[in-house]
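[job 0412] stage=fold_complex status=start
inputs:
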Amino acid sequence: MIDGLVESVPPGVLLIVAAIPVVLLPYRLSQAVMLALPVLGLMQLLSMPAEYEQTLRVFDYALEITRIDALSRVFGIVFYIAAFIGVLYAAHQRDRLQSAAALIYAGSAIAAVFAGDLLTLFVWWELTAISSVFLVWARRTEAAVKAGQRYLVIQVSSGLLLLVGAILLHSDSGSLAFEHIGIESVAGWLIFLAFGIKAAFPLLHGWMKDAYPEATVTGTVFLSGFTTKLAIYALARGFAGTEILIPIGAAMTAFPIFFAVIENDLRRVLCYSLNNQLGFMVVGVGVGTELALNGTVAHVFAHVIYKALLFMAMGAVLLRAGTTKASDLGGLYKSMPWTAFFCIIGSISISGFPLTSGFVTKSMVLSAVAHHHYLVISLVLLFASAGVLDHSGIKVPFFSFFAHDSGIRVKEAPLNMRFAMGIAAAFCIGIGVFPEELYGILPYPVDYQPYTTTHVVTMLQLLLFAALAFVFLWKTGLYPPELRSVVLDIDWVWRRLLPQAWSGVAEAWMIAQGWLLGHAVRVRQGVIELTATHLSPWSRLGEPWPTGATAMWAAVLLLAYLLIAY
Amino acid sequence: MSDESIDPDDGTKGEEGWLDRPGSVDLIIKGLIAACVVTVAADFFYHKHAEYAFQQWVGFDAIFGFVAYVSLITTAKGVRRLLMRSEDYYD
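[job 0412] stage=fold_complex status=done
writing structure:
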């Protein structure tokens, strides 16, 4: 009976249903229950069979509201861990709107991962969009409200593309099942595009670097975890082995790192870094072999946690110092040593140093690519790996906690934040030291050894010499200084170009209208003058005509009429 | 909340961190150089199992890492000239 009840609720739904009642409880109780929810959710997931399906009949359609398999299960597990860490990180905060939005957002992302058909996926897909925007709006600044609006439009559009694609697919094949889709049909392309928006493909990525840094201190931590990784899951489910993903992913690893070098807001730097990390995953999905997909899923697992850790560290800096602008920070290790320490753990993990989570997961993707001798892609990924060391490995911790002493003296991050960062840091090291624990839950059997001499030495060479290059550039003054600035990116198109083009069109219309009106006045004047000249009693037409002439004209007219009639 | 505010007066009078001590930074840099030397030297003592032939070269990843980093930063500085705007650009 209890078993049946536990299984009848799709994973994630518990968080959604409980969200609003829970935040209405008294503060302490509410925090306790909120922390318990992801734990209960994870226990529910782990207690369910490793392969499980549940269908719900709605009218003539059988919706597969729950589908647990090896792929969805890993995503579910890491999403619950991320939800727990996020809730703990936000526990000092008394903002009911944010708490409820965060729970619904996490819950709907989890439910989406377990959706077995495209319609169910669509519902949860849109709920992640709608709930997550409140984490941006909750910052309650004008910039956040506007960025949130832009974010929502793009996110909801992604859902609409998914819906249209699903309907087309259904009319083609008669099935709504969310299995391999591929890009052989229009429906496939629409769904590919829908996933690509959320996965922040190149040129579709603007929403993330626009909205995430505008969200609240705690909101960005949640945002960094779910939306984009849900998209990676969806790509892995629907488009594994789709070769076009390989160049797309490689481009994603490479181009954001240039922006990350020159961006001043460190939370925005982390967004570019997130975009770069997604690239490795997209490449893995594109390669599509068991090793590549295992690598992708493992990288998602590691990434969700170290990326949350980095956003938590920068969130703590934002909370205490009031800014995350690199140009204004520096020397914070003196006042926030714990945060600095945890940030460095996140930094070495994302950079992929041996004994951290990034090393044991990213190397799987790199090996899978090299195994197929995609030479150019391998070199791009290697270049991007050196780039990760710059923006997330060095820039984020260096300019906030070290560099020159900005003179800012603040309190260390609240205790709950330090605990949340500590747990994430423990995962980063734990996965790095005991990778077989993570390998054990991957979708395919793992026959991979990360700690070979070749892997360790080559990775250390790459990272240490890149670090040496930083020292060289910094000491010689060639490293670009952090400047208060904005760096234009693709969101410029809809924040500046389109509004300006629109006002250009409006202006042209005004001018055209003025010209037409001016002419209309002149034409009217002309008609009046013409009438006045020719039809006045003194004019040629207006003067009394002789009867004979009139009769003759009447006869001519009648004759003409007769001729025409015949 | 008072604990969230910045106290600018406190700045320069703050306690000395271990990085402010002369020699600390140099020590870190020396350590880094030593580690770099060790990783390249290690290439002589094992057989590399690389997928590409050029990866077998001694110190390939070291040179690649250094060159990639420098070219990344140099290119980004060029990109900055093109794309950087004042902070209130979108306001």
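[job 0412] summary: Residues 537 and 543 of chain A are 5 Å apart (CA to CA).
[job 0412] exit 0
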